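Let's practice the habit of predicting before peeking. Look at the sequence and jot down your guess about where helices and strands might fall. Then scroll down.
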Amino acid sequence: MKVFSAICMVTLRGLMSRRRVTGLLLLTVLPAIIVALVGKGAGDPEQLTRGLTVGVLLAVAIPVVALVNSSAALGDPRREHLLPFLTLKPIPRSVIAGAVFVGSVVATLGIGGVGVAALWLAGGWVTGSWSIGLPAAVALVVSALSYGAVFIPVGYLFRRGTLIGLIYLFFWEAILASAVTTLAASSLWRIGLSAYLGLVAEPAQEFVDLLGTVQAGVGGAFAKAGVLVVISLVLTTWLLRSRDQVV
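Done guessing? Here is the structure:
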């Protein structure tokens, strides 16, 4: 347990550098800033808040934070030749994989949580309703798990893991999966969106349409994220054993 915690903390410290966190925080709080500045004068402040929640926070900010953190979680140590110092020790590779995953998810939750909290406060101030934050917080957890599961092994395997993630986010998810509904199931942010819409009373049809073939629901979203996490941990454990030739 001490080893697991130590690896978690090392991963977390590596991902929470001031330069990285500053840029990601600015991205996550952008929706809240917009709501605070123009929300009171908007014709429908609640619709504006929900639109920014879905269109910016859930579709762009949180995915970017998650894929940047997860692709760097094992990718950075490997590129900086720090990973051998860890893998040469008699530590089960499953422990390393699990600890790195937890550290990455915690980093994403910490940074993304600031954006969710800021939008919660701004949205509550301009609309008088405080029901906006909980669905977004749940979607954050689902997204952190889903993107972390996919992009930790991607970052380990590919030097440009973050770039691959950004191409996936802005080309595959935003364009292809939106244009071809059968591809919606391959979109990670739609898993988070399905959790969000599963907690929103009477969600706008335009948001439901974004799901494509994905069904809204918290349970289903966590189940999909859970499957991805299990596959990721098994794959990452295997990669750590095989690519470094350490059992």
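How did you do? The mean pLDDT is 89.
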